[in-house]
Write a structure and sequence with these properties.
Blueprint (H helix, E strand, L loop, with lengths): L1 H6 L4 H38 L2 E9 L8 E10 L5 E14 L2 H9 L17 E7 L4 E9 L9 E12 L7 E12 L8 E9 L5 E5 L7 E3 L3 H6 L4 H9 L5 E4 L1 H12 L3 E3 L5 E3 L3 H17 L4 E3 L7 H8 L5 H20 L7 E2 L8 H7 L6 E5 L16 E5 L2 E6 L1 H4 L9 H20 L6 E4 L7 H15 L4 E3 L2 H6 L18 H4 L5 H18 L6 H14 L8 H19 L2 E3 L5 E4 L2 E10 L5 E10 L5 E3 L4 E8 L3 E11 L3 E11 L4 E13 L3 H36 L1 H4 L56
Parallel strand pairs: 8-11, 8-19, 8-20, 10-12, 11-14, 15-16, 16-18, 22-29
Antiparallel strand pairs: 1-2, 2-5, 3-4, 3-6, 6-7, 9-10, 12-13, 17-18, 21-23, 23-27, 24-26, 24-28, 25-27, 28-29
Helix pairs in contact: 5-7, 5-13, 6-7, 6-9, 8-10, 12-13, 16-17, 16-18, 17-18
Length: about 800
């Protein structure tokens, strides 16, 4: 720049010299750029070839105090291609972290060897390795008195475990790998302790179908046997109970899980097979289920238990896609009503049911409205959804009155998400615990105000996540800056007047969560299934056998556990609806072939079949003529009769018909419920009417006249013959009255009245009359216990 400044005032000769220098520089710029790139690439390559990973598998105690000895153990692994020599693992204490954001920053770069973490504690507290071969892991364990760490003021310190060494390509000592974590330091009780509520969620996926056996026990059918694996020793749910029994936590339980385990404990459950059949569940799983329930009953004794609505319905999906479908909100109310009864029956404790918990604590105005529609006036939200806008220098208490008598209980997002991700490796779990404790201590250090903080972890922690959670809660319980508190107490605590109470709009709902919402079609299918159930239930003598399993299955249709599993959710809903259709079809009309009707009136039977195990009633069978001018049913266009049928039986319902003209008439049989709704499919059949015509009557009358005339002729002929006989026999015989009864001379032509010649009521049918197709039987219906064949 000095040269440029002098350029305008110099003579031509210096100017030319400046131009030559500038041209030389421009000519060499590409070469210089290439030379500059070479040394940049070399260190990067060397760093990748020399990298060593450090895993911090254990740090005890997690929150040390005065007089403790800190023990750090883990492994170092040479990921490079060259052996590392003159290596050692040392401990480093970094600066004190004064904000929660500082903790976040260190966590994001926890394994970056370029960042500094203070100086080593000293060579007395290190572990040496003569050589680290490529691909080989070496274990280390170092113990150091806490007073050697140089911890001064109370607070959170950055803490690192680093491996230093050299390679043949770069033969000088340097840090090749590091793992940073946090060391909370609060050796004595804090002046003000944070009241901390930790939710311990006991939830699972959907396991039971709507199907139950026909016997009195109504043997349930399960989708699979995954629940037994979770309940078995070492399983996820078994560990949740075993770990939680000694913790000061609030249990949050899905009643559907309890109902499923209780059904399994009976020992007669069945497992759904791929071909639509089912197989008996293993008998040994009955003991597993009973043992788990007994352990849970002991674990929750004396603890607060919060019952979610049955099957943990997806409040966000309901709010975004279900409220426009009629009846959707009624399912949430039903799930809430049955929750307390289920928990009390199985666990023998009275739960709290006035809390709603949207997925991930994400709320918007529509979710809040739905969450409180079933009676819950407290909604568990999260601070990354209900974000602070007032610029508070501290984390406010969890309780926030949001209007309408509703309280949002806001969980701290950093603490609540601390145990997400893969924690199967010891190093990852240790880092999660230390980060959680650091954030908790930092919250307490923000202000002298006592606050109530809520921790709401993921709904279904894995076994490894649950172990890390338990380790963190135990450290808090033995720590010096927090004290445990139940969820109800936290919700009732005095809110911070400066904390935000503004519920975000629907547009602020996370897109990643919205993609997992159940679609509107799911709620339309649920509504359709409910309508079919309502139509089916009215005919049953014991509605609970159907209403209870299907009502709970409809609740499961809306479960939060279906998020991310849309295909499985659709398959489950289809299965519930198909099974209901199959059951409802067990009560039906039997198909009927064409019926011939000869004569002006006859009886037509229609058969109703009930293949259910229970009696059905409250049904009406309507028989309707499509041409009432030709054929009437009961004297009009249609006639109805009530139907009641025992389980496993059929009933023949008989209708009186009258014909007015010849021809074929279509007749429709349809079942209705007593409230006028159609039930099942109709049965249509033809009735062929062959009525006696006037021409035929004339023919028959002519034949009768001929018979009468022939009889009269025979009579007169015999009378004349009898009159001639006395003349031949003499006068004595002629004196007797030929018409006197018992007179042996009575004329043979005096015949008694012959059947068929008169019109008496007892006259039999004429041989010329065609036999009727329908039986001349009673029109009364058969009893409910008959087995009637078509």
């Amino acid at each position: 720049m000095a040269e440029a400044a002098d350029f305008q005032g110099t003579s031509a000769s210096p100017a030319r010299r400046w131009l030559r220098r500038a041209g030389a520089l421009l000519t060499g710029a590409p070469l210089l750029a290439g030379l500059l790139q070479l040394p940049v690439a070399a260190p990067a390559q060397a760093a990748s070839s020399d990298s060593v990973s450090v895993s911090l598998d254990s740090l005890t105690p997690s929150a040390p105090t005065d007089g403790d000895t800190l023990t750090v153990s883990g492994t170092v692994t040479n990921n490079g291609k060259q052996a590392v020599t003159d290596a050692h693992v040392g401990l480093r204490v970094g600066p004190q972290l004064t904000t929660r954001s500082d903790i976040d920053s260190v966590a994001r770069h926890s394994d970056d060897p370029q960042g500094g973490t203070g100086s080593e504690v000293g060579d007395k507290y290190e572990e040496k390795f003569d050589k680290l071969a490529p691909g080989v892991a070496q274990h280390f364990s170092i113990s150091v008195p806490v007073d050697k760490l140089g911890l001064d003021d109370d607070g959170v310190y950055e803490f690192g475990v680093a491996l230093s060494g050299e390679t043949s390509a770069r033969p000088w000592p340097r840090v090749l790998g590091i793992q940073r974590t946090f060391l909370p330091w609060q050796p004595s009780d804090a002046g003000t302790k944070t009241r901390t509520t930790f939710l311990w969620p006991l939830l699972s996926t959907v396991h039971m179908t709507a199907k139950t056996g026909a016997g009195d026990l109504q043997t349930p059918e399960f989708l699979n046997d995954d629940l037994a694996k979770e309940l078995a020793p070492g399983g996820r749910l078994a560990q949740m109970v075993d770990l939680g029994k000694d913790l000061d936590v609030t249990w949050v339980i899905d009643p559907d899980l309890l109902a499923s385990v209780d059904a399994m404990a009976v020992g007669n459950y069945r497992l759904q097979a791929a071909d639509g059949t089912s197989t008996p569940g293993p008998r040994e799983h009955q003991a597993v289920a009973k043992q788990w329930l007994a352990a849970l009953q002991k674990a929750v004794a004396g603890k607060e238990v919060v019952a979610l609505p049955f099957a943990d319905p997806d409040l966000a999906s309901l709010a975004h896609n279900g409220t426009s479908v009629t009846g959707s909100l009624s399912h949430l109310k039903d799930a809430t009503d049955v929750a307390a009864t289920t928990v009390k029956t199985v666990l023998h404790v009275t739960p709290t049911t006035d809390f709603a918990w949207p997925v991930d604590g994400a709320v918007d105005r529509s979710i809040m409205k739905v969450a409180t529609s079933a009676g819950a006036d407290r909604v568990i939200a999260r601070s990354d959804s209900l974000q602070e806008t007032a610029g508070l220098p501290y984390t406010p208490s969890a309780a926030r009155p949001v209007g309408g008598g509703t309280t949002a209980v806001v969980a701290d997002s950093r603490l609540s998400t601390a145990f997400e991700g893969d924690l199967t490796k010891a190093g990852a779990a240790t880092l999660a615990v230390q980060r959680f404790l650091a954030q908790s201590l930092e919250v307490n250090s923000q202000t002298d105000k006592q606050r109530s903080i809520l921790v709401a972890p993921q709904r279904m922690p894995t076994a490894s996540q649950a172990q890390a959670m338990a380790a963190a809660v135990k450290a808090l319980q033995g720590g010096t800056w927090t004290q445990p508190q139940d969820l109800t107490a936290t919700a009732k605590d005095k809110p911070d007047p400066a904390a935000t109470t503004r519920i975000p709009p629907a547009s602020a709902y996370p897109a990643s969560l919205r993609k997992q919402d159940l679609p509107r079609t799911a709620f339309e299918q649920i509504a359709r299934t409910q309508a079919k159930l309502d139509n089916f239930r009215v005919i049953l003598s014991d509605q609970s056998r159907v209403v209870t399993p299907f009502g709970r299955a409809i609740n499961r249709d809306m479960s939060t556990s279906w998020r991310g599993h849309r295909g499985a959710a659709e398959g489950y809903r289809d299965g519930v609806e198909a099974w209901l259709d199959e059951l409802a079809d067990q009560v039906k009309l039997i198909d009927k072939s064409e019926t011939k009707l000869s004569g002006r009136s006859a009886t037509i039977p229609v058969t109703v079949q009930n293949n259910l195990v229970q009696p059905v009633g409250h049904l009406v069978l309507r028989l309707e003529s499509t041409m009432p001018t030709r054929l009437e049913i009961g004297g009009k266009a249609y006639y109805e009769q009530p139907v009641e049928i025992s389980g496993g039986h059929s009933q023949s319902v008989k209708f009186t018909t009258s014909a007015n003209a010849n021809g074929r008439v279509a007749v429709i049989a349809q079942l209705y419920t007593e409230d006028g709704r159609k039930y099942g499919e109709p049965v249509t059949f033809d009735v062929k009417v062959t009525e006696v015509t006037p021409t035929v009557m004339l023919v028959i009358g002519g034949g009768v006249l001929l018979l009468v005339l022939a009889g009269f002729r025979m009579y007169t002929q015999r009378k004349r013959a009898a009159a001639r006989q006395p003349e031949d026999d003499g006068p004595d015989t002629a004196a007797k009255d030929p018409a006197e009864p018992g007179n042996p001379g009575a004329p043979e032509g005096r015949l008694p009245q012959e059947s068929g010649s008169g019109s008496g009521a007892d006259d039999p049918e004429q041989p010329s009359d065609p036999a009727p197709d329908t039986a001349p039987e009673s029109a009364d219906p058969s009893g409910t216990g008959e087995r009637v064949d078509r």
